[in-house]
Amino acid sequence: MCARWLAWIGLVGVLSTPPAHAEADGNVSGNHAYIPEFDAYVKLSDRARVFLLADATRSTPQDTTDGEVGIHLDYTLEPWLRSSLRDADWERERYVWMRVGYRREWNIEGRPAQPAENRIVLELTTRSELPRQVWLVNRLHIDFRDIAGTWSNRYRYRIGIEKAFATAGGTAFVPYARAEFYYDTRYDAWSRQLYQVGVDIDLSKSWRIEPYVGLQKNIQPTPDTVNQLGLVLKYYH
Question: Which parts of 84-206 are beta strand (E)?
Fold first, then answer.
């Protein structure tokens, strides 16, 4: 089962990667993004926690680096029928949680052509168990955006599947595959698609690491494709 699941994940990654001959066309697929990220989750109660985010996106061949920081409040409904979930991992075992937060994104080099963005974030995430202990994860996300004084909204829907495994030593790892779709009110159109495969790996009770690869297809304002390579370090307290 583990081998079949990992093979399926690998197949999705191969199918999501543009063919090599397309690399010559910069408007089609010559763009790459390298994204290191640090996330911290601080538990406030059985129902609430603080989520802190910091990441940087290095884009080539543009040779630009964008930074992003954010602070969020997560809230979940306390399980009534399954008391074991009251202390459980929200991402892996709870069925629904909400998030509200603030994020700021800016160009680290200070390039005037890339104005800073301030964003209010709202999210709702639900999880449903499928056969063979596979989970279907849905996320609705709204960005209220202020880009250089101009307000707009972006609506995002993400769907994914994941399954938890454990090594002989007890280390848990969770491979996943996701697809996300963006609607931008600046263009009144679906502006972006994002496909990702990755794995969330326990390092200890407080630390996790999440490597992933992604394919971002931009539709508006300019069609292009960005190949992503990301690494997230997560801390839980």
Answer: 96-107, 117-129, 135-147, 150-162, 165-166, 172-184, 189-202
Q: What is the pTM of this model?
A: 0.82
Instruction: Give the residue numbers spanning the domain of 33.
Output: 2-236
- Give Rg (Cα) of the chain: 19
Total Cβ atoms within 10 A of residue 145: 20
Query: Which token pair is 169?
Result: 């030593």
Q: What digits encode the pLDDT tens for the residues 91-141?
A: 666 789 999 999 999 999 877 777 899 999 999 999 998 999 899 999 999
224 sits in which H/E element: strand 224-236
Helix/strand/coil for 214: strand
Q: CATH number of the domain that 203 lies in?
A: 2.40.128
Give me 108's structure tokens: 């680290």
Contact 214, 196 (CB under 8 A): yes
Tell me how crowded residue 173 is: count the other CB atoms within 10 A of its CB: 18
Q: What's the domain count of the chain?
A: 1
One-letter amino acid identity for 232?
V
Q: Sign of torsion, CA 104 210 139 28? A: positive
In angstroms, the first-to-last Cα distance of the chain is: 33
Amino acid (1-letter code) at residue 42: V
